[in-house]
Amino acid sequence: MRLIPRRLNRQVLTLALLWGAWIALYLFGYQGQLRQFKQVLTSLAPLNKQMEVYAEMLSWLPDPQKGLAQLEERRGRLKEQTLSPQTAPRAIQQLAQVAAANGITLEAINPRDDPRLLSSAVLPKGVGKRLIEVRLRCPYQALGDFISRLEGLPTPFTVDRLWMYLVPDSGEVVQVNLLVSTYGLT
Predict the structure, then answer these.
(1) Dihedral through CA 79, CA 80, CA 82, CA 86, nearest 10?
(2) Is it the case that residue 160 has pLDDT exceeding 70?
(3) Residue 134 near residue 180, CB atoms below 8 Å
(4) pTM over the 0.90 mark
(5) What string of DSSP letters covers 55-108?
């Protein structure tokens, strides 16, 4: 008489074989992979330290998004200072105020779009040159004060050409034609 049924023997045998397979897999397969994994981790340790150093160095750098926002803000301020169809009346008013402060008689202020005068300027992309012709009458010394005060205006002006004629029978009064330029963002 059998104490252990045959069916139970098969189950025990199957179970023993499975356990043996698991132990063999652990000893031969998993142990080797575990050793390789530990070697990879030890080789990555210096790289992790180096990455931490780089991360710290990156934290020292300014935020580029903040820098872009500041550049856009500055570009907006510069665009307000430069001459455009929207800001031309303000710039002309600035010229008129400087002339009035120096006792100068303004005869005409005209924006000019003469391509012959504009073509001589080599400008970077996004920058345009705007011209204003100013015709005035004043004493010679007042003209010097007027030109020097142009530097203090919010809109930057440059005197490109100056024609000066002495007004007959007027002492030191001169008739002046100025070609003033300013640069604007386009």
Answers:
(1) 110
(2) yes
(3) yes
(4) no
(5) HHHHHHSPPHHHHHHHHHHHHHHHHHHS--TTTHHHHHHHHHHHHHHTTPEEEE
Q: Is the pLDDT of residue 1 over 50?
A: no
pLDDT in tens, 35-94: 888 888 888 888 889 999 988 888 888 777 888 888 888 877 777 666 666 667 777 888
Beta bridge partners of 166: 174
Give yes or no for residue 2 having a pLDDT over 60: no
Give the end-to-end CA distance of the chain in Å, rounded to a whole number: 106
Q: What residues pair up with 161 in beta bridges, in sequence order? A: 179
Lateral strand order in the sheet of 158-166 = 105-112, 127-139, 173-185, 158-166
Give the span between the Cα atoms of 100 and 102, in whole angstroms.
5
| Dist CA 127 CA 183 (whole Å) | 7
Q: Which CATH number fits domain 82-185: 3.40.630.30, 3.30.70.60, 3.30.1330.10, 3.40.50.2300?
A: 3.30.70.60
